[in-house]
Design goal:
5-stranded mixed beta sheet, 16 helices, Cytochrome p450, 3-stranded antiparallel beta sheet, alpha+beta
Length: about 400
């Protein structure tokens, strides 16, 4: 039986064992059924009749002050998703990168370049992601980005808590209720809509003069704080993967067109989202196990993405791998609505970093320190570079 400490330290050896011996197994500490094989995980994410995202007991509902998009079903899910989806379509990516993402990355690079030494996860990748996505949402890129980034890290702690600290969820809910700045923006855009994501969430596909009410807006926005910094985590994972494979890093430095493939492979190899939650709607059989109705499921997409029956040498990071559909963004009707934006932002942050600090490298003594299970972060990326080689924006 796997323990949470094993899964949080390094889930992949546990997953490899379980895929062979017990692909659906009970994790007592999490009070969830862990699903590890590609086919079973795919079934859980696509069979909406037997597996639902509706999880009334989830602490995310309490800390967000209502039901986020990820846990909605039926008409409520479809309507809110349709309001958001157009803002994250592929045709929006190029303008998004040119007008928002790349200038933000250069401004953040300007701040860190003279130091010659920093934790790139905390001081470059997360800020670039938070400022950029906050701007796209329609919030102030200064204080709003700080709020969204703070909320995203609070929600990460809740996602990985599993009730072990009973006071954590309440403390986070209290902090996230301090949402005056966001509420003020929502109220302004309710009366005077613009082209922002929040305005579309309020008004898209609604009768004139009848914007969506707060319960369909504020919890969704608060949970989107996770998505706002996820591109930074993906960029961090990509850099950590390249640091672990110096030959591939040299290739990417020499041929920047390989960077997109590196981001795609990093998402498979160790993406930020490790587990997606579902609940059984009825008693059923999965992976040879009999599961009761209302069982909570932990569908380990991180494990499915290293399934030996699907990927050759799955534990190896290889940007030259034949492109194959993986589950880094999930699948089915609840698949992440923003893959083009997430990958474009991660790609852009890395591209600017390698341009501005071409010799950026791990600091002496740096050791990888990834952490988390449901949401898995790359940990600090302690980096150094030669200031004399840095390039102006």
């Amino acid at each position: 039986m796997p323990t949470l400490s094993e899964l949080e330290a390094d889930p992949h050896p546990v997953y490899a064992r379980l895929r062979v011996d017990e692909p659906v197994t009970w994790v007592p500490e999490a009070r969830q059924w862990l699903v590890t094989g590609w086919q079973d995980v795919h079934t859980v994410l696509t069979d909406v009749e037997r597996f639902t995202t509706d999880q009334p007991g989830s602490p995310m509902i309490g800390v967000c002050g209502g039901t986020p998009l990820l846990m909605r079903e039926g008409r409520s899910h479809r309507e809110v998703r349709r309001a958001l989806q157009p803002d994250f379509e592929p045709h929006r990516v190029a303008p998004f990168v040119d007008t928002i993402a790349r200038p933000v990355a250069h401004r953040v690079a300007d701040r860190i370049a003279p130091s010659a030494h920093t934790d790139l996860a905390a001081h470059y990748f997360e800020p670039v992601a938070a400022i950029t996505v906050t701007t796209l949402l329609g919030l102030d890129p200064g204080a709003g980005a700080d709020t969204v980034r703070h909320w995203g890290n609070l929600l990460t702690a809740v996602a990985n808590n599993f009730g072990r600290d009973p006071e954590l969820d309440g403390a986070v809910a209290t902090e996230m209720a301090q949402d005056t700045a966001v509420v003020e923006v929502v109220e302004r855009l309710r009366a005077e809509p613009d082209g922002s994501v929040i305005a579309h969430l309020l008004h898209a596909n609604r009768p004139r003069g009848r914007p969506r009410p707060d319960p369909d807006v504020l919890p969704v926005l608060k949970h989107l704080a996770l998505s706002a910094i996820e591109p930074g985590w993906l960029a961090g994972w990509t850099l950590a993967a390249l640091w672990s494979a110096p030959g591939h890093l040299a290739e990417v430095r020499a041929d920047r067109t390989l960077l997109g493939a590196a981001v795609h492979e990093a998402l498979r190899w160790s993406g930020p989202v490790g587990v997606l939650g579902r609940r059984t709607t009825r008693a059923l059989t999965l992976g040879g196990r009999e599961l009761p109705a209302d069982s909570v499921i932990a569908a380990a997409i991180a494990s499915a993405n290293r399934d030996e029956t699907v990927f050759t040498e799955p534990d190896r990071f290889d940007p030259h791998r034949d492109l194959r559909t993986h589950l880094g963004f999930g699948t089915g009707p609840h698949r992440c609505p923003a893959p083009p934006v997430v990958t474009a932002l991660a790609h852009t942050a890395l591209d600017v970093l390698l341009d501005r600090m071409p010799d950026v490298r791990p600091a002496p003594g740096w050791q990888p320190a990834p952490h988390g299970w449901k949401l898995r972060l790359p940990g600090p990326l302690d980096a150094v570079w030669d200031v004399s080689l840095t390039k102006a924006s």
